[in-house]
Write a structure and sequence with these properties.
alpha/beta
Length: about 400
């Protein structure tokens, strides 16, 4: 069967494909599809998952996914989207993050809930770019540097903004696009996936492949997912994310509050649902999206339970809802209200004070108004639900 018989999976959500169209990019033979990730943190969120979902679609269509763990490039740090030089990580930090990334992507997990296919033969290669970059000798580095100019580097938006604003640019940062591009040479990529902020890096891979006598890869770029605030991109530092490791209730509760204007984009990028088959009512459409995204991550039963529990919590029936539990065993009593949110891992102490003063925190449905309100013992909090906004719930336990 032709690999490009049905291109719906290929074109869904795509922001840019270069230098040609889908019909030319796909052939009747399996392609090597590159996706590089730098493990600079420990958590993957739904914004990241867009690229992994597209990579999985290529796997399911018969192509070979080449997932590159940037254990070498992570020690430089991708300057894309950054207004300052990234903090350089140690090799141990990078490897620890890489291990958690692979677990979240599905390595060793239930295949039905896995973002990537780790099980089907010849569908996935996991490579670390330290394999070919660690021993790159100085003559080869000079050869790579000769393939780009300072002017080209400063044409990259982030570099241009920093240069114009007088913010320092370290010379090693200019190496990042070249080394990332050399990854495409090393694995002989036919097509590279990236976000729309990665076009410079993907194009660099094409240039380097051409220089080394390899057929240049195609570039397929996916949109950057807006965060839960509906304004800025999904980013942990902005506190507007949904993490892949979040429990079903937290995931569903966050997603069912996504602004109406973003719901269709979330459906397109995070699910396989057809927009035309969904209810036109905005609230029903929002709930359908939240249920499907949660189902894909946690399964049918967990997603349905999360939807029911969310409804019970909104209705004030906290006792009948299955809410993630958090132990108060490490809390020293008497304890102030703001500290409880911090101890429960909901937010920092300073953010907790702000949220309580703003009326955004409830305890068993009753609004807390004083961040310094004291609770004398853990026993008086046993089984009660601590709530932040309409998205985060934790049942307090003494053990």
């Amino acid at each position: 069967m032709s690999l490009n018989k049905n291109l719906d999976w290929f074109s869904r959500g795509v922001a840019d494909l270069f230098p040609d169209n889908a019909e030319t990019a796909l052939t009747n033979k399996p392609l090597r599809i590159k996706l590089g990730i730098d493990p600079t943190g420990s958590e993957i969120h739904l914004g990241h998952s867009i690229l992994f979902r597209k990579l999985r679609a290529f796997q399911d269509a018969g192509h070979t996914a080449v997932l590159i763990i940037g254990d070498f490039t992570a020690r430089i740090g991708d300057p894309s989207g950054k207004s300052a030089t990234r903090v350089q990580l140690s090799s141990d930090e990078v490897e620890a993050n890489a291990t958690t990334y692979l677990e979240q992507l599905g390595q060793g997990q239930d295949p039905s809930l896995s973002l990537l296919d780790f099980h089907t033969p010849n569908r996935l290669e996991v490579r670390r770019n330290s394999e070919w970059l660690t021993d790159l000798n100085l003559p080869k580095v000079i050869e790579l540097l000769a393939l780009s100019t300072v002017g080209q580097m400063l044409a990259k938006e982030e570099f241009a903004n920093r240069y114009a604003g007088g913010t320092a640019i370290s010379l090693h940062e200019f190496l990042y696009p070249l080394l990332q591009g050399y990854d495409s040479v090393a694995i002989k990529a036919d097509l590279e996936l990236g976000g729309t902020d990665q076009k410079f890096n993907v194009a660099m891979g094409r240039d380097l492949q051409r220089h080394f006598g390899i057929k240049p890869q195609f570039g397929l770029l996916m949109p950057i997912l807006p965060g839960l605030d509906g304004v800025q991109k999904m980013s942990k530092s902005l506190g507007n994310t949904v993490g892949l490791r979040e429990d079903p209730l937290s995931m569903y509760s966050k997603l069912e509050k996504v602004p109406d204007g973003l719901v269709d984009q979330y459906i397109t990028l995070l699910t396989n649902l057809e927009l035309g088959a969904l209810p036109s009512n905005p609230r029903e459409r929002q709930m359908a999206m939240a249920l499907e995204v949660t189902r894909l991550r946690h399964g049918d039963r967990a997603a349905a339970a999360a939807q029911a529990d969310a409804a019970n919590l909104v209705a004030g029936a906290a006792a009948s809802a299955e809410v993630p539990e958090v132990s108060l065993g490490a809390v020293n009593f008497p304890a102030k209200a703001f500290y409880l949110l911090s101890a429960a891992g909901i937010c920092s102490s300073s953010e907790a004070k702000r949220q309580i003063q703003g009326g955004g925190v409830k305890l068993d449905g009753e609004k807390l108004s004083d961040p310094n309100q004291e609770f004398q013992t853990a026993t008086e909090l046993e089984g009660k639900v601590l709530q932040l906004g309409k998205k985060i719930f934790r049942r307090l336990k003494t053990l």
